[in-house]
Amino acid sequence: MDFGWSTEQQALRARVEAFAAAHLPADWENTASLSPGSQAVTDFSKVFCPRLAEEGLLASHWPVEHGGGGASAWDHFIVGEVLWEAGEPRGPQYYNVNWIGPTILAYGTAEQKERHLARMLAGDVIWCQGFSEPSGGSDLAGIRTRADRVDDARYRVNGQKIWTSYARLAEFCFLVAKTGPARRDVSVFLLPMDRPGITVRPIASVVGDGDLHEVFFDDVEVLESERLGPEGKGWEVIRFSLDYERVGIPRYALALKTLHRAVAELQAEGSFGPDAELAAATALAQCEAARMLVYETVDKRMRGRPDTGSASMARYGVVLAERAVADFVLDWTPHLFTGDAAPMVATHHKRAIAAGLAAGAAEIQLNLVARDVLGLGR
Q1: 0.70 exceeded by the pTM?
Q2: Residue 167 in contact with residue 193, Cβ under 8 Å?
Q3: Would you say 254 and 344 are in contact if contact means Cβ atoms under 8 Å apart?
Q4: What are the residues facing 202 on neighbouring strands?
Q5: C-alpha distances in Å from residue 375, one per residue of 213, 308, 312, 317, 372
Q6: So what's the pLDDT on residue 206?
């Protein structure tokens, strides 16, 4: 099997790299070392993403009839690899093109597509994700936030979400709420964040400013027309979106860059001996394994084949790879982690922490692999 890129794909990578070099400021790494949800990175995303859209690179993989370029998912991953390695200048807008937009494309009404997709394609709107809750963490079946019907056109939402990335700056929330008595009676709503009754409180963390929040919903009105998919059938919508989200960020790209940066430092010092070589080779192997697992998931998507747990395997592989690189840096080049010479090294470490929690905790991914891949049941 040939794992190489075609001539056209190599040309696309070079084009994206040239675009990033031309449009990122000289001190970009200092800004990129902040959280994607920070004010500075979010503001820059609203400058960078429209330029990316003009170049036809923001959502090239979306269908032509909905404003995209009709390119393959591979093209989107090439763009994502280059930009994530560069520090993700799309900021929180990677949500839009990676998984929220595709989910609206798959399940949205004509009105919802018209309202939301154009702004995503323009690169000027921020979304957040209302999934996790204090009582259940990553267990979406155990959520308590409720959307109770008021009449045929409205619901009233009450509850709390936690660890909500980008909530402070978001205009919309991809919200999951209970709409019936059964455990899996959940629905998805595309909720404007300026509705009365929504309170957002930032959570200070090592991950970075703007990444984590508590969100409270007190008698928040949400419209029937803002529900995505049928009432009580939200699990299909959620699983679709999670399959995209779990592999949407090519985290291995920044991990590989960080690993090579640390190895280059050791080589320059003349201290890249056998023990360091073995540790670096182990971390490199884990990064390459994660990349191949992600590629398997993309290949299945391209061929229209069922996921069967590959997205969860890929996500866990990425978590292990990022941890391996972070451990290598701390063990062999800790001065890169604490100094100012390479700000993205510390940034990789913070993002590696988040990888084990976002899109479902690592333990949740292992449960899904046990069930969907190994057939071990619940």
Answers
A1: yes
A2: yes
A3: yes
A4: 213
A5: 36, 10, 14, 19, 6
A6: 62
